[in-house]
Amino acid sequence: MGDNANSNESSSPSLHLARSPPQPSPIRLSKFASQKMRILVTGGAGFIGSHLVDRLMEAGTNEVIVADNFFSGTKDNLRRWIGHPDFELLRHDVTEPLLVEVDQIYHLACPASPIFYKYNPVKTIKTNVMGTLNMLGLAKRVGARILLTSTSEVYGDPLEHPQKEEYWGNVNPIGVRSCYDEGKRVAETLMFDYHRQHGIEIRIARIFNTYGPRMNIDDGRVVSNFIAQALRGETMTVQAPGSQTRSFCYVSDLVDGLIKLMACDDTGPINLGNPGEFTILELAEAVRELVDSSAKWKVVDNTPDDPRKRKPDITKAKSILKWEPKVALRDGLPLMVEDFRSRLGIHK
Ligand SMILES: NC(=O)c1ccc[n+]([C@@H]2O[C@H](COP(=O)([O-])OP(=O)(O)OC[C@H]3O[C@@H](n4cnc5c(N)ncnc54)[C@H](O)[C@@H]3O)[C@@H](O)[C@H]2O)c1
User: Fold this and answer.
1) What strands, in cross-sheet order, belong to the sheet with 37-42?
2) How many CB atoms lie within 10 A of CB 239?
3) Which of 66, 139, 152, 198 is spaced 20 to 30 A from 267 at the CA atom?
4) Residue with the nearest Cα to atom 18 of ligand 1?
């Protein structure tokens, strides 16, 4: 196979030292093959990925290729684009090399909810490490710009609040969440090493909790959990103590931020999230008011290493990307409740 991650590793150290500075990217394929920008979205069948694909396709100026193994995403999320001449869907696992000619890569492939990423932790870390190596190998080969969707989990259980990009984090390297948290930290390292060593154009987004329609109904993430439980008439389960805080960004805002980051001149990392901060109990209350005022909640045991506080400092996103979220939680939650109602077939 061609110039993938493995072939880079086989170069001798002396060759690395003798290497001349990074060369300019090869000619962009879109300049001669097509007028349209050709964009690969890994993980494009998932929650954020499918909204990103909608936006890229709706622009009318792009050809979009999605590579997804459908572990936590579904074809259903992309139904409206299947058969469109500017759209291709590949069943592909990013832990295997991929050769496609593209101008940009949005690299999202990775299960994001604890239920999914803890199901097979070894696969999760392989996805983060080998998947990112493969996508960087591809970016190097075809001269594509690559954006990684990293996470606020790289800050771990933060000792600084709110979290700025300069903060190095407080992560348990051997805990049950480490396959995800440390996996993303290594993925960020690989991005910067390819940038420094090979001149690859990289962009890193550190995404904070995002919510919206098409979230997997039973993925255990707190917003989807509460809405599904309240709609089904079940008791909402609040993980102890309930006073831990999160900030919730509506998915359309997040997609705006990703597209602006891809287009800007800064490598990042840049935090993308909504700085509005809510306790988990406040969120349960908001869902109860919206879905069913008689709904009940109970406090249950928490999972290990659950962060106590989470709130992005988005100064960098505001100044570099001219981006800040527009959708307040009270406006975004009803849209998600509507989507869950229709998928669960609960219309009362
Ligand atoms: N949603 C959030 O709140 C949030 C927060 C921080 C970071 N992120 C990041 O954003 C990205 C998307 O998250 P999401 O919420 O849409 O999650 P998701 O689980 O809905 O989407 C992930 C997609 O990646 C695919 N995938 C997983 N492993 C793969 C593999 N080995 N090969 C190919 N495809 C694979 C899944 O099938 C799915 O379609 C992830 O990288 C995640 O870490 C999300």
Assistant:
1) 87-91, 62-68, 37-42, 104-107, 145-151, 202-207, 270-272
2) 15
3) 66
4) 46
pLDDT digits (tens, 9 = 90+) for 275-292: 998 999 999 999 999 998
Is the CB of 46 within 6 Å of ligand 1?
A: yes
Tell the CATH topology of 32-213+248-275+311-325: Rossmann fold (3.40.50)
Please work out whether the CB of residue 332 comes within 6 Å of at least one atom of ligand 1: no
Query: How far does residue 163's CA lie from ligand 1's centre (Å)?
Result: 22
Q: Higher model confidence: residue 128 or residue 1? A: 128
Dig out the tokens for 325 from the structure.
Answer: 């979220």
Q: How many residues does the chain have?
A: 348
The two three-digit tokens of residue 123, written as one number: 């696969």
Candidates 131, 143, 132; CA nearest to 104 is 143
pLDDT tens digits, one per residue of 222-267: 999 999 999 999 999 998 888 988 899 999 999 999 999 999 999 9
Both structure tokens of 205? 């987004």
Least Cα distance to 90 among 44, 125, 50, 47 occurs for 44
This prediction's pTM: 0.90
- Catalytic residue list contains 180: yes
State which amino acid sits at residue 16: H
In our burial notation (b when 16+ CB lie closer than 10 A, e otherwise), range 2-39 reads: eebbeebeeeeeeeeeeeeeeeebeebbbeeeeeebbb
Query: Which atom of ligand 1 is found nearest the CA of 92?
Result: 33
